[in-house]
Amino acid sequence: MTKQVLPLIEKIPQSILGFLEFSPSCWSSSLTKTTQAHARILKSGAQNDGYISSKLIASYSNYSCFDDANLILQSIPDPSVYSFSSLIYALTKAKLFSQSLGVFSRMFSHGLIPDTHVLPNLFKVCAELSAFKAGKQIHCVSCTLGLDEDAFVQGSLFHMYMRCGRMGDARKVFDRMSEKDVVTCSALLCGYARKGCLEDVVRILSEMEKSGIEPNIVSWNGILSGFNRSGYHEEAVIMFQKMHHLGFFPDEVAVSSVLPSVGDSEKLDMGRQIHGYVIKQGLLKDKCVTSAMIDMYGKSGQVYGIIKLFEQVELMETGVCNACITGLSRNGLIDKALEMFELFKEQNIELNVVSWTSIIAGCAQNGKDIEALELFREMQVARVKPNRVTIPSMLPACGNIAALVHGRSAHGFAVRVHLLDDVHVGSALIDMYAKCGRINMSQMVFDMMPTRNLVCWNSLMSGYSMHGKAKEVMSIFDSLVRTRLKPDFISFTSLLSACSQVGLTDEGWKYFGMMTEEYGIKPRLEHYSCMVSLLGRAGKLQEAYDLIKEIPFEPDSCVWGALLNSCRLQNNVDLAEIAAEKLFDLEPENPGTYVLLSNIYAAKGMWAEVDSVRNKMESLGLKKNPGCSWIQVKNKVYTLLAGDKSHPQIEQITEKMDEISKEMRKSGHRPNLDFALQDVEEQEKEQILLGHSEKLAVVFGLLNTPDGTPLQVIKNLRICGDCHSVIKFISGYAGREIFVRDTNRFHHFKDGICSCGDFW
């Protein structure tokens, strides 16, 4: 204590002097005592003494009275490093990292030099804020002062670089560290694992062995977890094998860390071996291990393994239930997943947001769209709040059946809970509105997004392509290439599909060549399929067939299906038979191929061939998928089947259809009997055409909605030419906008005109 301070201390009462002699932690034993001591110090005139003021700062800081501590600091005419370090330490401890960095900046501006006590706190602050640039600058200061050799400074600096993801800088610090231990080595191992650097991980393990530092179970768990979470599944499996080979016994954390990678790598045999190890070690009691094991079997397509393991679980737990639902849904057993979900509810198992999101996503991905929407409603009734994963999971269900009201409701929810800044939510909304026929809303959502990734751009391009708006798709593509984002194979699929919708052959060839020449993207089967469709629809069937023969790998059913569809449009029997034979080999149980070939024969009046194809279908036990259409009326989705006589409003629908037919005849319209592909009389053909599901759905909508209300219909097959003509007439006759989405594209009918320009 300096001689200048002694006279001041002599004026302070002995009780305060004794209080001052204790450590700062004792100072904070009572905030009241601190304020009393502060008052007496002010009376004694000792408040300008740096030592005493620093004690006060430490005490106020320990009680989180940072404003008071800061006022005292500002009042000191000549503050010391200790004065600032007390406040920096307390702010860091209170997780007020930005403020802590601000205090250091003031300290530095006073010309004060940080010591080995301040620097570790500062590096911790930079690590928490991921403030790499600030941390680098402080590192330079520590080097200039020669403090970078201190063990505590080196340790905190190393962890700062690790937290900022600067593996190269962290490794340089690590190499210079005077005291390496298993903790720092484990952190470096985990960091390299997250980057997928298998060779570096192996090298560090070797260096540890040479240095006499033995990795512990935490080291191995960090390696396995790092590789797994970053998607380096093969590397995780390799290190798990190495761990076992070196004689380490994996614990619950190790097993649950590696099992997801085993599933993603489809290494079922290893998964079964781990299952045996888990049973021997009695690890199945751990809920994380059980969940990971079920997940592994689900990813490997082993449904029996999921069910058997589930039956062995003694204590049912939410995570296990979630893994079960996801595993069953992933393998197409959505009915079994729904059954289990209902069982979980009956048993009052606490179902969280993951549980609900998993079953909703499973339904949406497996054709249970109405069930997905109902579950989303139940989820909210159960007071489980949907999150940024739930919304993109349920929106496809809205798009699949054009449930626009439900989609808008989900959009409103996303706005209320501030989820629109999420690119996954935004992309799902763009896709949903496009599938519901509201491409203008898709554009609006896209325009309002604060940030956009490639998925957002692709969703918008796909939406416009679905609506046959090729010029807009090409314009969006031009805007995309002006950003820093690089188009991918999905971008070009949308482009080629859009060109196919409107017959832009030259543009299609241009983009097909651009993929490889400018972006190095090798065409996939979906690109060849689009080109075959484009050429076939343009009447260039032989050119389409020649392109198929040039494909460097085996064409799939999509490619041959595109050719067969084109043959239907061009009435080309010879190529249709070639395409059909290929499809019979690829998909022998797909009734669509038989039906399409039969229709091509029927259009040519080749009834003997029609009977032959239908007999073959019957011998194989195949049935034609019935035409089915969906329409949403008053928040409810209705399903109408072709030729369905059991609908409760069938009489009103038939009566209204007859009225429309009479009006069409008055206007000179006649049914296009070419689309009634049965060998029957003309009158019967007319009745068959009147029973097509899209007509029934449109008339049902006319009967059950107010005049002028737009109608939205989805069909599971391609719309036929006669239905297209009839709905065009209805749009003008009834003064309705009618949106019809078939398996190929959108048709927007208004005032007797269709957006496709009769090219589809």
Form type: elongated
Distance between the termini: 93 Å
- If you average the pLDDT, what whole number results? 85
Structural class, by secondary structure, is: mainly alpha
Number of helices: 42
Q: Give the biggest beta sheet.
A: 6 strands, mixed
Helix content percent band: 55-70%
Strand order of the largest sheet: 2-1-3-4-5-6
Protein name: DYW domain-containing protein
InterPro entries: DYW_dom (IPR032867), E2_motif (IPR046849), E_motif (IPR046848), PPR_At4g14850-like_plant (IPR046960), PPR_rpt (IPR002885), TPR-like_helical_dom_sf (IPR011990)
Family: Belongs to the PPR family. PCMP-H subfamily.
Organism: Eutrema salsugineum
Describe this structure in words.
The protein is mainly α. Among the domains are: 547-625, Serine Threonine Protein Phosphatase 5, Tetratricopeptide repeat (Alpha Horseshoe); 628-754, no CATH class. 67% of the residues lie in helices and 4% in strands. The protein has 42 helices and six strands. A six-stranded mixed beta sheet has the order 2-1-3-4-5-6, with helices on one face. Strand 5 and strand 6 (753-754) form a beta hairpin. Helix 20 packs antiparallel against helix 21 (318-330) and helix 35 runs parallel beside helix 37 (591-603). The model is unreliable at 1-29 and 675-686 (pLDDT under 50). Keywords: Repeat. InterPro entries: DYW_dom (IPR032867), E2_motif (IPR046849), E_motif (IPR046848), PPR_At4g14850-like_plant (IPR046960), PPR_rpt (IPR002885), TPR-like_helical_dom_sf (IPR011990). It comes from Eutrema salsugineum (Saltwater cress). One of its GO terms (molecular function) is zinc ion binding. Residues 668-760 form the DYW domain.
